C-alpha cells in the first residue's frame, strides 16, 4: 500500500489485519447482502482503510480499483448502504457486509448486480445430503 491515495491516519485493529488474507493489491472481496431478505446485492473490494471506515461510520466504503480512490456507496447516487453487520469468512479472504440498501445497488439501475440468470440446470438433492 505505497500509493499515496491510500494512506490514512487511522489504523485498522492489528488483530483484525492479522486475520485478513489480502490479495496482491492489498484488497479483500466484500459481498454485500440485504440484511432482511438475504438478497445478494453486489461484490466490491476493500482495503484496510475502507474496512475501518465501514466498521466505524455505519456506511459502507469501498476501494475502487478502476478509479484508484475510496468511494462511499450512495454519496453521488443517493443509493446508500447502511451497515447492519460485517462478518469475515473462515479463510479471511472475503467479507459479508449485511446492509440496509436505499434504492438500487447496481450502477446499471438494477436492484442487484446479479440480475443476469445464466439458465443453469437445477439439481435435486434426492439423497437428503446436508439436510438440517
Describe this structure in words.
- This protein has 132 residues and is an alpha+beta fold.
- The chain has a single domain (4-101), classed as Ubiquitin-like (UB roll), CATH 3.10.20.810.
- Helices cover 12% and strands 29% of the residues.
- The chain contains two helices and six strands.
- The protein has helices at 14-19, 48-57; strands at 28-34, 40-46, 61-64, 69-72, 81-88, 94-101.
- The longest helix has 10 residues, at 48-57.
- It is globular.
Summarize the structure.
This protein has 132 residues and is of the alpha+beta class. The chain has two helices and six strands.
List the helices and strands and how they pair.
Elements: H1 14-19, E1 28-34, E2 40-46, H2 48-57, E3 61-64, E4 69-72, E5 81-88, E6 94-101
Parallel strand pairs: 1-6
Antiparallel strand pairs: 1-2, 3-4, 5-6
Task: Name the descriptors.
globular, alpha+beta, 4-stranded mixed beta sheet, 132 residues, single chain, Ubiquitin-like (UB roll)
CATH topology, what is it called?
Answer: Ubiquitin-like (UB roll)
Fraction of residues in β-strands: 25-35%
- Strands side by side in the biggest sheet: 2-1-6-5
Helical proportion, percent range: 10-25%
Structural domain count = 1
In total, the number of strands is 6
Amino acid at each position: 500500500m505505497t500509493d499515496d491515495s491510500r494512506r490514512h491516519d487511522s489504523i485498522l485493529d492489528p488483530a483484525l489485519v492479522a486475520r485478513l488474507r489480502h490479495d496482491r493489491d492489498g484488497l479483500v472481496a466484500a459481498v454485500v447482502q440485504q440484511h432482511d431478505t438475504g438478497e445478494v446485492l453486489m461484490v466490491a473490494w476493500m482495503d484496510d482503510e475502507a474496512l475501518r471506515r465501514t466498521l466505524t461510520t455505519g456506511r459502507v466504503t469501498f476501494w475502487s480499483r478502476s478509479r484508484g480512490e475510496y468511494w462511499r456507496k450512495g454519496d453521488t447516487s443517493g443509493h446508500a448502504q447502511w451497515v447492519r453487520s460485517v462478518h469475515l469468512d473462515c479463510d479471511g479472504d472475503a467479507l459479508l457486509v449485511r446492509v440496509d440498501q436505499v434504492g438500487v445497488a447496481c450502477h446499471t439501475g438494477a436492484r442487484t448486480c446479479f440480475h443476469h440468470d445464466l439458465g443453469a440446470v437445477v439439481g435435486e438433492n434426492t439423497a437428503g445430503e446436508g439436510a438440517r
